[in-house]
Amino acid sequence: MLYRKFVPPIHLRPFVECFFLWENSLLLSKSLPIESPPTGFASMVFNYGTPYRVTSQKLNGGLVPKNFLTGQATKSYQLQLSGKIGMVGIVFRPAGLNTLFGLPMYEFSDERTNLRDVLGRCLDEWSDKIEEAASPTERIGLLEQFLNLQLLRKNPELDRIDYTANLIVEQRGVVNISDMMNELFVCRRQFERKFLQKVGVSPKYYARIRRIGSLCSELAQKRWQVADWQDIIYKNGYYDQSHFIKEFTEFTGKSPSFYVKNNVELANYLK
């Protein structure tokens, strides 16, 4: 099984975190569950493999659209894959989808929305090209072309929301939102309203999501050991152990120790 991330070209990096490709050479003989905590990133996904299901607080194991947009995940979710895995996607920086496409991101939180319903029939042509492409490189190149055309149409400019959301990502969610807004000399209510529009959740909640997402990624890749819990609590800005456990369980539905021993997160498949 191959799961790869691709760094976007320089001109797309203000808007795109990465591209990804996920394929398998052998058909899955049984359902494969893959879990993911909330990561802090929205995405567009083009599926040319077997349709799959998603289970979350909002989605009850139904099939997701062939090509879809997903906004901010506010809790963990699980993919149920089967048959042929074949998909490519664009992972956007926290405000990137709104900045590039002007979409109200609060409408897409915890959803898998058919891309055709959002962007129109033009998606059919791109979907066909991606499905017919002869190589991973060609598929990623098509995603870049798709965004390049939107960049030319929109000619977007980054604003304070982009800056703040990107800074929260860089700081792994360990930030003081009130201090950040004071430094920007902005009206708190107006700023929070614009942040909700561009990112999909409030600034404070986004910082919590990003902190958990970043931490889970490290745990899944075995960078931490169970003996390092106190170090984890300190470095990630939690008040104490009980606060850490409560926060972790709220977002993932599992205790930290259980998660480390039993996670089947997508990070395990990264190459």
Automatic annotation (TrEMBL):
InterPro entries: AraC_XylS_family_regulators, DUF6597, Homeodomain-like_sf, HTH_AraC. The keyword Electron transport does not apply. It comes from the Bacteria. PROSITE patterns: HTH_ARAC_FAMILY_2. GO terms for molecular function: DNA-binding transcription factor activity; sequence-specific DNA binding. Gene3D superfamilies: Homeodomain-like (1.10.10.60). Residues 159-262 form the HTH araC/xylS-type domain. Keywords: DNA-binding, Transcription, Transcription regulation. Transmembrane segments: none annotated. SMART domains: HTH_ARAC (SM00342). This is AraC family transcriptional regulator. It comes from Runella rosea.
